Amino acid sequence: MSNGSQAYTLKDTNSPSQVIRQTLIFSSITLFFLLTNLKCAKDDPGPLFFRFSPVLFVDYNQEFEYEYTAVSSSGKPVTYQVELPDWMIHDEASLKIKGTPLYQHSNRDYKISITATDGENIITQNFSLEVVRAEFTCDVNFGEPSKSPYALPFDVGTSSRIIQGYCRSGTGGHIGYFAYDFALNMFDTLRAARSGVVMFVQESFVDGNKVPGQENFVIVEHDDKTAARYVHMTKNGVLVDVGQRVTQGQPIGLNGLTGATTSPHLHFDVFRSRNFGGFPALRAQSLPVNFSNAQGTLDQRNGLREGSTYSALPL
């Protein structure tokens, strides 16, 4: 995809005549900050005011660095409190916010809040941060496994082979989106890969029906509003209820043989929202996932390899 350029204008809401212009170069993923209520050092900046040297955008998979500072007109020392997403790093010593947006961070708004005080005055600066992804791609980095919020969805101390990997080509499932098929035995316990709230369950279909769309499943919505699917459960094998809060590692169902499958296995995938709809929306919203407790060889993207076996280590 060719890159284009576009000029964006950010205005000081306290002084409409003051304009900051910055040319933004777009690539497949662009990160940019929309600064609201920007306070600049003017004729009367007040007793405590912010000064900014913001990075307005960063290309996908490249580290960004945002520097901030506040000044007390009375010369008093200033302390800060910063709230930001957990994938960013706050360097208190240098007053910088750093991070590297990954694929799974795209198409979302993130909030950053910086509060400064000199012991007498207090001000807060809020940011609306958006990571934009122009198009779906399988060529992404899954991130450091040890930092993954997900654990393998089966018993600790057991192993499973990936019989279908993510973003496959040719025939079969998982073509062009992120999903794993874990080979498991009938009635093996399936466990929550991540804590969340049960949003949907289906457990009425019989094993061995081989009918696409007639799979038993559980969908769990996580605190960040992403959602995980656990598919092909056995009839009456769901162990949780809609609306129930589940914790990571908690049993949620029993493995089965329902829907479009000829062998018992768990189909596992994660989506940007529980309202993912059908194809192609399903594929476009799928997210790359690895697991913090998976023992086994990963591919060059830090994803699980088709045909490889992975053991679930203690959490």
In short:
2% of the residues lie in helices and 43% in strands. The protein has 315 residues and is mostly beta strands.
The CA-CA distance between the termini, in Å, is 41 Å
- The CATH superfamily of the largest domain bears the name Glucose Permease (Domain IIA)
SS element count, helices: 1
Give helix and strand order, one letter per element, not per position: EEEEEEEEEEEEEEEEEEEEHEE
Would you give an account of this structure?
This protein has 315 residues and is mainly β. It has 2 domains: 129 residues, Immunoglobulins (Immunoglobulin-like, Sandwich), CATH 2.60.40; 168 residues, Distorted Sandwich (Glucose Permease (Domain IIA)), CATH 2.70.70. Helix content is 2%, strand content 43%. The strands form 4 sheets. Strands 12, 13, 14, 15, 16, 17, 18, 19, 20, 21 and 22 form an 11-stranded antiparallel β-sheet that branches. It has a 5-stranded antiparallel β-sheet with strand order 5-3-11-10-7, with no helix packed on it. The two termini are 41 Å apart.
In terms of topology, how is this protein built?
Layout: E1 5-12, E2 15-25, E3 29-35, E4 48-53, E5 57-59, E6 64-72, E7 79-83, E8 88-91, E9 96-99, E10 108-117, E11 122-133, E12 159-164, E13 180-183, E14 189-191, E15 196-202, E16 216-221, E17 227-238, E18 245-246, E19 251-255, E20 265-271, H1 281-285, E21 294-295, E22 309-312
